[in-house]
């Protein structure tokens, strides 16, 4: 829990210093910056067999760079524990995303980068906990604490055909760097 003690004051200052109003405009790229700090608790259990609970506090920030460009950052923290699970806590990898809208062509270009700021290696017992958290059936808000470096470029095109129909296409690619999920794992 020590990483959380140092992050809580920083998160409180960030939420007070950078809180912006919500943007109600229909623009593709928002012109309003914002920081969203939230906290939550999720718990699942199978009586007398296993349980897994997570306290999480994701931080999301968005900053408009210019009229048609924006930058967003996501970083979260979590602490998980349960019956027959090893305690696991820390921060996630930082996710940085940049968007650029080419209005004259109806194109949205984006680039996402995952920076390895979270856990780099887990013990075998911590890995078992992370498998429980990352199971999509449970839908934990912070399902993983680290996955290593990644880059995700993408492009989206959309154009209105009439007042009620829009035609669109999109493509993206994701490159994931090497990652060692379990301490000492060779392959």
Gist?
The chain is mainly β and 187 residues long. Helices cover 14% and strands 47% of the residues. It has helices at 2-17, 124-134; strands at residues 34-37, 40-46, 50-66, 69-82, 85-91, 94-102, 107-115, 150-160, 166-172, 175-176.
Describe the model.
- The structure is a single chain.
- With 187 residues, the protein is mainly β.
- The chain is built from two helices and ten strands; from the N terminus they run αβββββββαβββ.
- It has helices at residues 2-17, 124-134, and strands at 34-37, 40-46, 50-66, 69-82, 85-91, 94-102, 107-115, 150-160, 166-172, 175-176.
- Strands 1, 2, 3, 4, 5, 6, 7, 8, 9 and 10 form a ten-stranded antiparallel β-sheet that branches.
- The two termini are 30 Å apart.
- The relative contact order is 0.14.
- Mean pLDDT is 82; it is low at 1-25.
How many helical stretches? 2
Tell me the radius of gyration: 19 Å
Structural class: mainly beta
Q: Give the percentage of residues in beta strands.
A: over 45%
Q: What is the β-strand count? A: 10
Largest sheet: 10 strands, antiparallel
Oligomer: single chain
Query: Helical amount among residues, as a percent range?
Result: 10-25%
Note the topology.
Elements: H1 2-17, E1 34-37, E2 40-46, E3 50-66, E4 69-82, E5 85-91, E6 94-102, E7 107-115, H2 124-134, E8 150-160, E9 166-172, E10 175-176
Antiparallel strand pairs: 1-3, 2-3, 3-4, 4-5, 4-6, 6-7, 7-8, 8-9, 8-10
Q: What keywords describe this structure?
A:
disordered N terminus; 187 residues; mainly beta; single chain; 2 helices; ten-stranded antiparallel beta sheet; elongated
